[in-house]
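Protocol step 4 of 5: obtain the predicted structure for the target chain.
Materials: sequence only (see below). No template structures provided, no constraints applied. The aim of this step is simply to have a reference model before the mutagenesis design in step 5. Sequence pasted as it appears in the construct record:
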Amino acid sequence: MLHEAELLGISCRKLRNWVINRRRIMGFTEHLFHDGDEVISDIELVKIYFLTHGRNAWHSTWISRYWKGCMHVTWEKARDHAEEVRKQGAVFYIKELPALAIAVDDMTSIVISQINALDVLSGYSPVLADDSGGADKSVLEPGTRMIDTYLSFSFGSLFWKTPPLASSVIRLQYWRYGGELEPLTESLNMWTSSSRGPAYYLDWHSTPGNISASTLRSLLAANQAVRSKRKGA
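Step 4 output (C-alpha cells):
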C-alpha cells in the first residue's frame, strides 16, 4: 500500500518541538519533523495527480483549491477518489503536476509542487547570497538539513524572489511502502470527467496540460552542475 504524508506548506509556522503527529487520511499520513538532524540524500523530478472539482474549465479564471484527499501518486488513485466523493452534477478534473521529490532516505521523500501556477516554483531560488563573503550554498544540496529545505518553501520565505500566491505551494511527504512516485514526463496531461448517471462510473476525457516544469528542470540541472563541479575540484 502507498503511504504519502500530507504537509500543506503555506505559512512559515513553527513545527512545535518537532513532534511526530501521524494520522491516516485517504492514504496520506501527516508528519511533523521530530528533530532537525534529517538530511537530504537525493533529489529527483516526479509528477503527482491533483484532483479537484467545479463547474468551470481549467482555462477559465476559476482558482483551484487545496483540500484533503486531492493529491495522489497515481492517476488511478485520483480517479477512485473522485468516485468516492462524487455528487450529482459535479464535474471533476485530474491534473498532472510536476514536482520535486527530496529524499531523506530510501523510504521517505518530501514532495514539493504548486497549484494555480503555470510554471511550478517559478519564483523560487534555493540560494541566498552570503553577505559575509563566503560561498553561496543551495538548500537543495544533499547533506542539507531537511528542515531548512522544508522551511525555504514557506510563504514569506526569503528564498522566494517573487512571492507565490497564498496557499499555492504544496508540501507532501511520501512514504515508499510498496510503490513509487512516477518520474516526470516531457508532456503533462489533464482529464475532465463526464457522467452517464449514478449507476455508471465516471468517464474521463484527456487533453494536453498547460503546466510547465521549466523551473523545476532548471533547479535540478543547476544543482547537479554544482555537485559535479565540487566533485571535480
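Step 4 remarks: Residues 1-32, 56-61 have pLDDT under 50 and may be disordered. The two ends are 43 Å apart (CA to CA).
Proceed to step 5.
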